[in-house]
Write a structure and sequence with these properties.
The protein has about 325 residues and is an alpha/beta fold. It is built from 14 helices and five strands. It has a five-stranded parallel sheet with strand order 2-1-3-4-5, with helices on both faces. Helix 10 runs parallel beside helix 12.
């Protein structure tokens, strides 16, 4: 046996032993005959499995809330929210980041999703990309991190080198770091300032972490971005007042949001949107605050985009 073959064999046995310690990789003998069940029976089992995920998330809510407050503080100073992961975890980060501009009118550079292997890895597996801490460092160096930025490493196993490397690199440069994994005592959570471990247990299909683990990660990423944006004033109550009206559906939604917030007539809403270049938040302020378009823009700028504060200023 050559030394390279021996090294490969040693690495294989080491990795196999490590995987066998992970809850997300555990084998479930009671499901070993699942392929012999009816489709409806399998669906019922899978649905029952999925129902356990929110309970697992609930145990980590204090940690999630603390992380969100820290993210919002930095983003209010101009920092960015950056997700870094491989495979399913990376795709979920890219998905969450890509939905922020149309939902909250953020610039695409404000919430960023990095996936090991680059954009092509969204649809095709990139061999070995997840195993490289150096690749994560290179991807983050391209973004020129600052202490106001936040890097969220996402990995079901909590051991993926790309995610761990991203967090280690970011923390060394003074950025806020969050490690989101689905195994307890993970290297990822240990490397981050804020460790969030959603322990969902073994998967229906052994090691298929696109299932419960992926669902848990999606729920937490939803919280991170959505509640951060609420804290930053991107909503008014539960209305998306910063929504970007880039198509007919969103234009109709914009008018409905103004109507729900103000109770104004269709004619008043059209006038307000025309006076504010279609900006929902500004239009609401002109109606509820009784100010013109330029004044609404000024009050919102002085209030850092928080509509409630701008309304208070307009009537104070």
């Amino acid at each position: 046996m050559t030394s390279s073959t021996a090294d490969a064999s040693s690495n294989y046995h080491s990795l196999r032993a490590e995987l066998e310690t992970l809850t997300t990789e555990a084998f479930r003998p009671e499901l070993s005959q699942i392929d012999r069940l009816s489709t409806l029976e399998i669906a019922k089992i899978m649905n029952a499995e999925d129902a356990t995920v929110p309970t697992a998330v609930a145990t980590q809510l204090p940690r999630i809330a603390a992380a969100i407050d820290a993210v919002a503080e930095r983003m209010s100073r101009g920092g960015r929210l950056i997700y870094a992961g491989a495979g399913t975890a990376g795709r979920l980060g890219v998905l969450d980041a890509s939905e922020c501009p149309p939902t909250f009118n953020t610039d695409p550079s404000e919430v960023v999703g990095l996936i090991a292997g680059g954009p092509s890895a969204m649809v095709t597996s990139v061999e070995g990309a997840e195993d490289s801490k150096e690749l994560a460092e290179a991807d983050l160096k391209d973004l020129s991190l600052t202490p106001d930025d936040t890097v969220v490493g996402v990995s079901a196993s909590g051991r993926t080198p790309y995610a761990v490397g991203a967090v280690e690199h970011a923390r060394a440069r003074g950025a806020l770091t969050i490690g989101l994994s689905c195994n307890a005592h993970s290297a990822l959570a240990a490397a981050a300032e804020h460790g969030i471990e959603i322990v969902v247990g073994p998967e229906l299909l052994t090691g298929s972490t696109r299932l419960k683990a992926g669902t848990a990660q999606k729920l937490v990423l939803n919280m991170l971005s959505t509640i951060t944006m609420i804290r930053l004033g991107k909503t008014y109550g539960n209305l998306m007042v910063d929504v970007r009206a880039s198509n007919e559906k969103l234009r109709a939604r914009s008018r409905r949001i103004v109507a729900l917030a103000t109770g104004a007539s269709d004619e008043e809403i059209e006038q307000a949107l025309a006076a504010t270049d279609g900006e929902v938040k500004n239009a609401i302020l002109t109606i509820l605050g009784g100010v013109d378009g330029p004044t609404a823009a000024r009050l919102l700028e002085e209030s850092d985009g928080h509509l409630r504060a701008a309304l208070a200023a307009s009537t104070g």
